[in-house]
Design a protein that fits this description.
Layout lengths: L7 H15 L2 E2 H8 L3 H13 L3 E3 L7 E4 L1 H19 L5
Helix pairs in contact: 1-2, 1-4
Length: 92
């Protein structure tokens, strides 16, 4: 049986959805829900922060992440693309 892997776009979508659902998500919580390795998640978080789609929550003892308004727009756009692809029987 062939294992199906998630695309990078799907990983970004999963991380953005997790952070949005949690409000302020700590790294461990994102790891658990998005099912990623720590190294892969750190790379994604750095990239998403550089694109200003997420930001570090201020005044936290442990680092937590929040989604920005721009990140919400990107997540909504990705959700639309996923729905469209599902309609045509394609995977992202």
């Amino acid at each position: 049986m062939v294992k199906e892997y998630r695309t990078r776009t799907r990983l970004v979508y999963d991380v953005l959805c997790t952070i949005e659902a949690e409000g302020e998500a700590h790294t461990n919580r994102i790891l658990l829900i998005a099912n990623l390795s720590h190294a892969r998640l750190q790379g994604l978080l750095d990239e998403l922060q550089a694109k200003t789609w997420i930001q570090a929550a201020p005044d936290m003892e442990r680092k937590a992440w929040r989604i920005t308004d721009e990140g919400r727009k990107v997540r909504a756009s990705l959700a639309g693309v996923l729905d469209l692809m599902d309609d045509f029987g394609l995977r992202l």
